[in-house]
Amino acid sequence: MTNDKQRFLSQQIIENACEWAIMHGVAFRQADNTARHCPFSIAPMAMEREVYEHLLKVTPLITKLISHVSEDHDFLQSSLSDMAKADPFFGRLMALHQQAHADTSNSPTRQPLLLMRTDFMDDRQHGAKVIEFNGIAAGMGPFGQRATEFHAFMQSQWPNAYQDWLEDSAAVPAENQGLEQLAYAITASARKVQADFSAEGKPTFLMVVQKNEDNVYDQHLLETALQKRGVRTVRRTFEQLSTELSTGDNQRLMLDGVGAIDVVYLRAGYQYSDYWAPDLNESTCCHALSQTRLFIEQHNVAVNATISQQLATSKSMQMLLTMLPAEDYARWGLSLDEAQLIKSVLAEMKPINAETIEWFNRQAVKHEWVLKNQGEGGGHCVFGEDISDTLSQISPEEYDAWALMQRLYPHERETPTIAVRDVEQAVVDDLVSEIGLFTAYFNGEPMTQLGGYAGYLIRSKPASENEGGIHSGKGILDSLTLVG
C-alpha cells in the first residue's frame, strides 16, 4: 500500500456496506426521521484468546457481586451517603432508595433484573481492566451482535478487502449472541413474573425511553427479537407513565390501554432531563417523574435497572469495591477465589480529598490518571494536565462526586484500518478498542444460555481521541477476533 488510492476501498464496497448497516438497523434516527448508519470499522480487531477467556470467566462474577451489593440496602445507604450529598442527581436517587426501603416490613416487591454491560480496556502494561459498570440504559447489545454479523458479511461478500484490512489473518471471529441472549434472558424473566400470577397469553415488556431519542434502532432490534419469542413490547416516556400506570390485584403493575406489565426496562433515567416535565411546574426538580419510577418498583414486576442497581453500578461504588480487600467480598456470597478474580481486573482508583489533590499536583504522573464524575455516557472524564485545573475549581462539598482512576492505554491495532462514517472512509493508523461484556441476572441468578454471559460490544477509536462513544464520541462499531 504505497499511496492513498491503493489504500482505500472502492466506493461501491463502501456504499454496499452502509446499505447493509441501514437495512439491518445499525443506524441512528435523524431529526427529519431519516436514518444514518452508525460509524463502523471495515474489519475486526484481534485479542489474545487467553485475555478474552479471562474476561468471560470474570464478568459474570462481577454481575453476581453487583447483584448482591444492589440488594444490600443498608450498605448502599451507608457507603454512598457522602457521594449523594456531593452529587444532586445521585442525592435524588438515594432519597428514592431511602423512600423505597425505609419500611422493612413493606419493602418493594419489584424483582431485580440486572442487564449489565461491563466495559474493559486491554492495557499494554497492566492487562485487561474495568473502565466502568453500566447498570442502567446498558444498551447496544443488538449493535454488538450486528457488528459481528457485518464483518461476517464483509468476509463472505468482499473477501479480499476484508483480508487486506484484517489485523491477523489467522484470527478466528469470536461468537457474539448479544441480541439473542438479552432477548432470551428478558423473555425468561417475563415468563417467571407471569407465572407468579398464573397469567396466560403473551407476557408484556415495557421499555422506558427518552422523548425524541435518536438511538432508537438498537432498541427496536431488541423489541423485534422479543416479539419473535412471543413477548408483547410497548414504549413509554416517564412523562407518559406518570398518568398511565395503576395497581392491579396482588401488586400487579398495570398500563392503561395495555394491561399487565411483566418486565420494565429503563433506557432512560440516568440524568435529570429524563425526569423533567416543564408542564408540571414543580417546586422541586423532577419530583413527580422520579416518583413514577418509585411507583414501578412498588409492584411485582421484573425491573432493570432498579434504583439499587443504578447506585451499585455508580463510579463511587466501583471505587469502594476496588479499595475493599478481597476478603470483604464474602459479605455478598463470593468465595476468596471469586473475589480475587474480580480484583484482577479492577484498575486503581482514589477518592478526591485535600490529601489526594496535593499528591496529584506535586507527585503524580498526570497522564497516568483520569478524573471521573458520576455521569453516564461521554463527556464526563478529564485527562492529564486538565485534571489539576478541574480539581482547583470544584469545591470541597463536591469532592465525593469525583474519583481519580488509573488511565488505561490499550494496545493500538497493529495494522491500519478503515473507519466508515457518513458513507465516507478514512484510514486510521492508531485504533484502540474498548470491549463491553453483557450479562443478565434475575433475582441474583444467571439468566442466559451461557451462564449469565450475553455477548459483547466492541467500540474502537483513534488513540488520540478521549471520547470513544459511538453515539457521543469519535468511536466506531467493531467486532472481535481471537488469536493464540
From TrEMBL:
SUPFAM superfamilies listed in its UniProt record: Glutathione synthetase ATP-binding domain-like (SSF56059), PreATP-grasp domain (SSF52440)
Stored Gene3D superfamilies: 3.30.1490.50, 3.30.1490.80, ATP-grasp fold, B domain (3.30.470.20), Glutathione synthase, substrate-binding domain superfamily, eukaryotic (3.40.50.1760), Glutathione Synthetase, Chain A, domain 3 (1.10.1080.10)
Cofactor: Mg(2+)
Keyword Nucleotide-binding recorded: yes
Entry-linked Pfam families: GSH_synth_ATP, GSH_synthase
Keywords of the record: ATP-binding, Glutathione biosynthesis, Ligase, Magnesium, Metal-binding, Nucleotide-binding
Enzyme Commission number: 6.3.2.3
Coiled-coil region: none
Pathway(s) per entry: Sulfur metabolism; glutathione biosynthesis; glutathione from L-cysteine and L-glutamate: step 2/2
Superkingdom classification of source: Bacteria
Segments forming domain Glutathione synthase substrate-binding: 204-312
Entries under InterPro entries matching the protein: Glutathione_synthase, Glutathione_synthase_a-hlx, Glutathione_synthase_C_euk, Glutathione_synthase_N_euk, GSH-S_sub-bd_sf, GSH_synth_subst-bd, PreATP-grasp_dom_sf
GO cellular component, one term: cytosol
Molecular function GO terms recorded: ATP binding; glutathione binding; glutathione synthase activity; metal ion binding
Top-level enzyme category: ligase
Family: Belongs to the eukaryotic GSH synthase family.
Record-given protein name: glutathione synthase
Source organism of the structure: Photobacterium lutimaris
